[in-house]
Specification:
This protein is α/β, with parallel strands linked by helices. It has 7 helices and 10 strands. It is globular. The relative contact order is 0.17.
């Protein structure tokens, strides 16, 4: 049986409807990597800070949609850091360019992420220290990096939406509770792959949560059309569920 549980990037990964709002975070550098930082207005009620590691889709953490999602997490009491493994070269800068070589861009971006994620994660730990809770969230391109960190002892829990490039090896290596937010229509993470993931999580007696939204496609968690009620509700419910997931596994620590 193939070890592939979520396929490579597809055309859906490169489409988006830009959302509207005013970002509240700022740009910083962690371990030489550009990073979006959004922090809560008040200290955590428990006295223990929770830091969310945000692994973006191909539009990057500085895309308006991603900034607003990270700011939403911050409004719920979390400190959020979003890695820019595209180093200022996200996909939306190229979408209308004639002759743009998307495969070459993808290869470059994957290599950059492979090289930068480990040192960036170490930099995050150095920045925030050990007396905090860490969670991770990833969308599309960012999902496999969530699982890389989930294989360590760093995280309290993790969440992904419409993942790509997920293997059985990555899934089985995870040590933390996992949330999957899924679309009814998703060529990268179709129903047979999704059901295989569930089978493995049952087999390994993992703690997990699946949510599956009808009427939406890959990318809904960050890039759906807010003017379409079904897409807007799915996106908002996805994010509410992730916040609840983070709080569930950090509030008692």
């Amino acid at each position: 049986m193939s070890s592939t549980l979520a396929g490579p990037l597809t055309d859906h990964c490169f489409t988006s409807v830009a959302h509207s709002g005013t970002p509240k975070g700022k740009s910083i550098t962690i371990a030489g990597v550009p990073t979006y930082l959004s922090v809560p207005q008040a200290p955590a009620a428990s006295g223990v800070e929770t830091v969310i590691l945000y692994f973006s889709d191909v539009f990057g953490p500085f895309y308006i949609n991603a900034q607003l999602v990270q700011d939403y997490y911050a409004s719920q009491g979390f400190s959020v850091v979003g890695i820019d493994y595209f180093f200022g070269d996200p996909i939306h800068l190229h979408l209308n360019k004639p002759g743009f070589d998307r495969p070459t861009w993808r290869t470059k971006s994957v290599e950059q992420a492979r090289d930068s994620v480990p040192k960036w994660v170490d930099g995050v730990k150095e920045m925030f220290g050990t007396n905090v809770n860490y969670c991770a969230v990833g969308f599309c391109f960012g999902a496999p990096y969530v699982f890389q960190v989930a294989a360590t002892d760093m995280l309290s829990c993790a969440a992904v939406a419409h993942p790509t490039s997920l293997t059985e090896e990555l899934l089985r290596a995870s040590k933390v509770p996992l949330l999957f937010s899924c679309a009814e229509t998703d060529s990268a993470f179709p129903a047979p792959f999704r059901r295989r993931v569930e089978d493995i999580l049952v087999e390994t007696k993992a703690t997990y949560y699946f949510q599956i939204f009808s009427g939406v496609s890959h990318g809904f968690g960050t890039r759906g059309d807010p003017e379409v009620e079904t897409e807007r509700w799915a996106k908002e419910e996805c994010q509410r569920a992730m916040v609840g997931w983070f709080k569930r596994f950090t509030s008692s620590k």
